[in-house]
């Protein structure tokens, strides 16, 4: 079942000689519970794509469908509510509230939506992400990797349809990056959570089940990891 779809998605800036086609006809499907990485160089359009998928910006043309809802047709207030309930975000910057402890940061979005958090589920997230001993610590008492774990937990707390990760290891060292990426993979597997990760790092991209390569606002390749590895092994001759 596809939980996320885009159809002929376009995002243009400027006009005439200054026209920039940040996205130029991107169509893709993402199945529920899959872990997908979108890889591309700076300026390729990958971050613009994430902003469209997350409803942070509106397309010039085309549609974005999340959990059966065409979010490109929603009014601003409707989109804000939908985004809060259905889309989880993990960014380079952790965006934790410094005066709230780990648990309070995790459940904050749920409470802001006027709901009571599923405490059993939240506790499971905390344990899976290895935050049990830090539950009542403030962000200033955590390492960068631990803060990013809290950000992942917060994104999961509302049980979103999709989780979008934008260069989630950009501020972390290589060892901590591997830990965080492993946790994203565990998150996808353990909670059957759909994860779409944006990255410029080829090595990081390979940790996903599927890699989408984007260049000049267009998808240049799209396939499972095993096929990419076979292609490289055969020197690019693999059909």
Task: Give short descriptive properties of this protein.
single chain; 239 residues; alpha/beta; four-stranded antiparallel beta sheet
Give Rg in angstroms: 18 Å
Percent range for β-strand residues: 25-35%
Listing every helix as H and every strand as E from the N terminus to the C terminus, the arrangement reads EEEHEEHEHHHEHEHEEH
Q: What is the overall silhouette?
A: globular
Given helix and strand content, the structural type is: alpha/beta
* Low-pLDDT regions: 227-233
Biggest sheet record: 6 strands, mixed
Taking all residues together, what is the mean pLDDT?
91
CATH topology: Rossmann fold
Q: What fraction, in percent, of the residue positions are helical?
A: 25-40%
CATH class, anyone? Alpha Beta
| Alpha carbon gap, first and last residue | 27 Å
The assigned CATH architecture is: 3-Layer(aba) Sandwich
State the strand order across the main sheet.
6-7-8-3-9-10
Q: How would you sum up this structure in a few lines?
A:
This protein is an alpha/beta fold and 239 residues long. It has helices at 46-53, 76-86, 102-112, 119-128, 144-157, 174-190, 202-205, 225-233; strands spanning 2-13, 20-31, 35-39, 61-66, 69-70, 87-90, 162-166, 194-199, 210-215, 218-224. The chain starts with a strand and ends in a 6-residue tail after the last helix.
How would you characterize the overall build of this protein?
The chain is of the alpha/beta class and 239 residues long. The chain has a single domain, classed as 3-Layer(aba) Sandwich (Rossmann fold). Helix content is 35%, strand content 27%. The chain has helices at 46-53, 76-86, 102-112, 119-128, 144-157, 174-190, 202-205, 225-233; strands at residues 2-13, 20-31, 35-39, 61-66, 69-70, 87-90, 162-166, 194-199, 210-215, 218-224. Strands 6-7-8-3-9-10 form a 6-stranded mixed sheet, with helices on both faces. A hairpin with a 2-residue loop joins strand 9 (210-215) and strand 10 (218-224). Helix 5 packs parallel to helix 6 (174-190). It starts with a strand and ends in a 6-residue tail after the last helix.
